[in-house]
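REQUEST ID: PR-0412
SUBMITTED BY: lab tech R.K.
PRIORITY: routine
TASK: structure prediction, single protein chain
INPUT:
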Amino acid sequence: MRYLFFLIVLVVFNTNAATTKITAADLPNYSKRYNEKSDPFKDAAAAIALANKTHRNVLIEIGGNWCTWCNKMDDFLEKNPQVYQALHSKFVLLKVNVSDVNENKAFMSSLPPVLGYPHMYVSTSTGKMILSKDTAQLQKNGQYDVDVWLKFINQWQAKPIAATEHRFAKQ
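STATUS: complete
OUTPUT:
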């Protein structure tokens, strides 16, 4: 009987978690738009703290409001809710502005070179950089592609911690 109760609770929890829809209102400001006045170091610290708390990786998106492909990527995500939901449920998105008004040179000098805009990096919740990604690789036939994006998200999301592992175990 105890196992049946546990199974019911598990099913209800998973059903509720799967139906929770992430909206722009749920996101921190650094995940919504490029901001020329924002401090990327402060935003990165907040994004890493949130990623650590929620067991996600950080997806750092470099670009700006001036960037045509950055705007196309935002439109693509808006028009493809399955990608939008997967992205925001598995990553903390950090948008970092690079523009004529604010190049964020100090922050950018700490990253591998940008190949074009937008450019993405994946960081763990401890701040370890694990990927530098040209977003052109998320396209098929010159357009952002749902399947390519979902494969990317699934490949680079934070790996679940095994029940026998402890996140902060002594080494």
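NOTES: The mean pLDDT is 86.
REVIEWED BY: pending
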